[in-house]
Amino acid sequence: MSMGQRAELAAGNLESEMLELGRAAAASRTALAQASGETRNRALHAAAQAIRERQAAILAANTRDMESARARNLSAAMLDRLQLNDKRVESMAAGLEQIAQLPDPIGAVSAEWARPNGLVIQRVRVPLGVIGIIYESRPNVTADAGALCLKSANPVILRGGSESRLSSAAIHECLVAGLKAAGLPVAAIQLVPTTDRAAVGMMLAGLEQQINVIVPRGGRSLVERVQKEARVPVIGHLEGLCHVYVDRAADPAMARDIVLNAKLRRTGICGAAETLLVDRHCAADMLPMLLSALAERGCELRGDAAAQAADARVKPATETDYRTEYLDAIMSVRVVDGVSGAIDHIAKYGSAHTDSIVTADAATAARFLREVDSAIVLHNASTQFADGGEFGMGAEIGISTDRFHARGPVGVEQLTSYKYVVRGTGQVRPG
Questions:
Q1: Residue 242 and residue 386 in contact, taking contact as beta carbons nearer than 8 Å
Q2: Model pTM?
Q3: Domains of the chain, earliest start first
């Protein structure tokens, strides 16, 4: 069902129409799973071509979304997530092509062994099933999520935010064009054609057990609602409280570049660093330089007494600041007692998303990478690399901080499960 065909569902028909989406998605499972990897790749390439051919229409739709968003006084971070331009549209198209180039996960044998009785057992990758994805603001998620689910042979029901309604519809039409070009069922990628929040509740209830997994991608209020109300398994994260720890053995120039990039490259993404931790043993030399570099680029700083003493522009930090995902040009700062202090701070305040250490000491780095229990830990690199595309996955649906099934960037492989295939020669189990 295309939003171009039906802009809004009549309120009285919402439940029946949502159930229809679920049934259509479930009905497409077999055809999608049985389609060859080449066929699914052909759909992805055709969708990428359609995105490029319809770039003007996509940008025109996005302009209307941006005008509405500004009229509603959305935050700068939300506007940044929403906005498309030539570069971002091309990135969407290129992302689909990169996903097509990935190995086909379906049918891949991840393990194989033989038993003493002659049975040969294989663990084989299979699709998860119908995936419901609920997201806000970012229209590029429509392309990324649709493509990843298609590559992994999972039908998907996409529910974008009201902010990106027109942009997502224009992108979805390109995905549908790709499915048609490859002869795949158009119900394999569906977009909920309403902004009614009741549709979210119906998806969380599972649409009469037609949805197998829910993936939320958005702000804290959305994710909290999903985690509270969902009656099907959820893959996601609540927030990205990411840290950069600058160790006594850090190269000053490297530390400056990493901190600036981690905080300010794009402040509105979940991989943006929110807290800077500096080793007390190097604070006298390192801290003034780092704080000055951040402040000169327009970053508001909130820090402890040591940070305030190092730069008069630093405002006093509260306990709440160290627990806040700003998604803005604001950063909290604390001086800690070496790597032990950094690990303790992250354990207390972090969200198990992404954390980085800057140091030339291999042993200190190894300890940080081992003891910080986050989905992504980095050494001498910006937290903004917390992205499936940067991991070589083509794209991602989101970053998972769960400790079951998928953790970190959720890409093609993370959207699969497995089954065991056992081959025998007539064996029976003895009594």
A1: yes
A2: 0.84
A3: 11-236+410-421 (3.40.605.10), 242-385 (3.40.309.10)
